[in-house]
Amino acid sequence: MIGVLGATGAVGSAVIRRLAGHPLRTATRAQVTDADALREFCSGCDVVVNCVGFGDRIARVALDAGAHYVDAGDGLAVSGNRVAVTGAGAMPGASGLLARYLGGSEALTVYAGGLYRFSAAAAADFVVADRSLASAAWRDGTVRYGSLPVQSEVELPFFPQPVTARPYLSVEAQIVARKMGLVEANWYTVFDGHAIQQVLRNPDPQRLIAASALDSAGRTPYLVITASMGGRTVVLRGFDGTTLTAAILAHTAEVVATLPVGTHYAADVLDPGPTLEPLGVFEASRIEEGAL
User: Does 94-242 match 2-89+246-271 at the fold level?
Assistant: First the structure.
């Protein structure tokens, strides 16, 4: 039995569609604010997929109930005798997996982002993120603070128009760089839109949600992730943030029971190939060679 919390939200409803072939139990955000109701929901579930936020609180209840736990949020301070996977979304999640899919040990550059509307959970995670990692890069096996400038109105391959790329060496990026044995890694979060740029200077969840909605008005949201190393580039695109997050969450829910017991980042423990290849990941250099 897979339990999905946040069933009526954009991400939760998309997860449910992807898991339609499995026995499901669903609940709305309002139904999980009560501790007793949450414990009752988790009891009997093999896996709980959290699409509503409140990560640590829900994770503890799920693990105590004997369920594995899957969350797109960035980081958990929980432990138990089951598997808990965090960062199982688009960013983090697909972004780190794409870097591992590329492979290699040379200098890595990742651009991830686009035009997307912040969900309440994503906005909350963004606000509490470690600001000291902005402008940081990975150098000689460690974090080097203040290494990279913001790239404003830059034209990037595979992005449809000029964007702003803000360096941010997330925990996921550090885990991936360490796992791959990299000496150098540059990791950028990409934003398409002017309203969001103003809010990023002093982020607040409600302002992030409102600004991203304003930038997205009348436009089609998109998400592009590229990972480049040594003349090779792999690309994941054709999704908005909601759809890609749901795809990674659903896949993680299907395989979580096969992973080692403990709390992990998705980009650290999922197999990049089976996770990303069904989503249409491609190597740009091979397409260019084929065209020639």
Answer: no
* Cβ atoms of residues 85 and 70 within 8 Å: yes
CATH superfamily of 2-89+246-271: NAD(P)-binding Rossmann-like Domain (3.40.50.720)
Reduced to 3 states, what is the DSSP secondary structure of residue 47?
strand
CATH number at 94-242: 3.30.360
Cis, peptide link before residue 221, omega less than 30° from 0:
no
Q: What is the pLDDT of residues 199-255, one digit of tens each?
A: 887 888 899 999 999 999 999 999 999 999 999 999 999 888 899 999 999 999 999
Q: Is this structure's pTM higher than 0.85?
A: yes
Q: Is the pLDDT confidence value at 291 over 60?
A: no
Cα–Cα distance measured from residue 108 to residue 90, given in angstroms and rounded to the nearest whole number: 19
CA distance 262 to 66: 13
- Burial per residue of 29-41, b for 16 or more beta-carbon CB atoms within 10 angstroms, e otherwise: bebbeeeeebeeb
Contacting residues for 202 by C-beta, under 8 A, at least 6 apart: none
Planar angle of CA 214, 71, 159, nearest 5 degrees: 40
